[in-house]
């Protein structure tokens, strides 16, 4: 920016209000009065409204037009172009990750265990048994003396890993249904989360890519589905149940079925390492955990506007902690804003 511009223009930006000495104009982007001098207009100052992710409020930012010879990084046009390139690059990385996920974990024979087209009956039986022990409901009922259905007896480390991932996935529902960019995904969020919950995490990767599309003003916002309303209004319950399931899964993996012949903690750890290196299902769970570690802070960071204002700082920092950050988001979701 030329030195003359700096000498002629004095800018004050305080929270949601922006004042530049001189003529007053109304900016409809954020509905507040902005004073803009004729001198600064001639010198090429341009107002850019940017949404503050950290504060969840509209904040005006003043930049110069591209091509004014003012130095710097080229102004608004170059910023928009750079952001667009970064968006497209991120989408390309996500779609590539989706292709690798499907090929490596489902189709190719090189990963541990059997691919989908050669899955063994033993793996199918383990998957059915793990599903029956969903959230340890049957094992806990049996332990309490209720034996309407007998829970399959599987290694507690495999049961713990399975339910840990399921519990974490369960808590993604309020986050997805309250995502500010969810309307860019034209499909059903109910089906997407259902497939993610009960089939595989492979469905979440395309969603993360599609939500980066440019917003379509011609596409009207969709009404929240019944499932979405239940999950957002009951976000605190979802967070408590999912967090408890993850905590119980960790305890169960190392101490569950103590009356069985599953050995000490070191024995169970050795089983886990062997399990991960020989079973495709367990190997896929590790992939899911790694992706969740990336997607959780990303999605929460994009939706801090949904958090109760007095809990904002807590969620902002906890979002990087696996599982804990998602529990915090569910417990601190601003239901009045969502409704």
From TrEMBL:
Signal peptide: none annotated. The keyword Transmembrane applies. The chain crosses the membrane at residues 92-110, 130-149, 161-179, 191-210, 230-255, 281-301. The keyword Transmembrane applies. Keywords: Membrane, Transmembrane, Transmembrane helix. This is Transmembrane protein. It comes from Solanum tuberosum (Potato). The gene is LOC102598273.
């Amino acid at each position: 920016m030329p030195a003359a511009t700096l000498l002629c223009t004095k800018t004050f930006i305080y929270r949601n209000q922006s004042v530049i000495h001189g003529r007053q104009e109304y900016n409809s982007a954020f509905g507040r009065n902005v004073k803009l001098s004729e001198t600064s207009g001639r010198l090429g100052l341009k107002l850019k409204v940017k949404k503050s992710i950290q504060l969840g409020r509209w904040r005006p930012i003043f930049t110069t037009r591209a091509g004014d010879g003012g130095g710097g990084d080229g102004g608004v046009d170059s910023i928009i172009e750079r952001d667009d390139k970064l968006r497209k690059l991120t989408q390309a990385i996500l779609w590539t990750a989706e292709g690798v996920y499907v090929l490596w974990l489902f189709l190719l024979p090189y990963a541990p265990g059997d691919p989908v087209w050669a899955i063994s009956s033993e793996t199918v039986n383990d998957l059915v048994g793990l599903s029956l022990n969903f959230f340890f409901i049957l094992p806990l009922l049996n332990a309490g003396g209720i034996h309407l259905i007998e829970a399959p007896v599987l290694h507690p480390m495999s049961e713990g890993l399975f339910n840990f991932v399921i519990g974490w996935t369960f808590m993604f529902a309020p986050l997805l249904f309250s995502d500010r960019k969810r309307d860019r995904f034209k499909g059903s969020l109910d089906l997407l989360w259902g497939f993610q919950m009960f089939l595989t995490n492979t469905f979440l990767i395309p969603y993360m890519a599609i939500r980066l599309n440019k917003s379509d003003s011609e596409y009207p916002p969709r009404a929240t589905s019944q499932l979405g309303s239940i999950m957002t209004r009951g976000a605190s319950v979802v967070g408590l149940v999912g967090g408890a399931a993850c905590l119980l899964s960790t305890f169960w993996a190392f101490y569950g079925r103590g009356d069985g012949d599953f050995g000490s903690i070191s024995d169970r750890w050795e089983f886990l390492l062997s399990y991960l290196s020989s079973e495709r299902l367990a190997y896929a769970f590790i992939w899911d955990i790694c992706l969740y570690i990336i997607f959780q802070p990303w999605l929460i960071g994009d939706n801090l506007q949904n958090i109760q204002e007095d809990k904002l700082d807590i969620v902002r920092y906890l979002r990087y902690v696996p599982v804990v950050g998602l529990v915090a988001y569910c417990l601190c979701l601003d239901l009045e804003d969502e409704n």
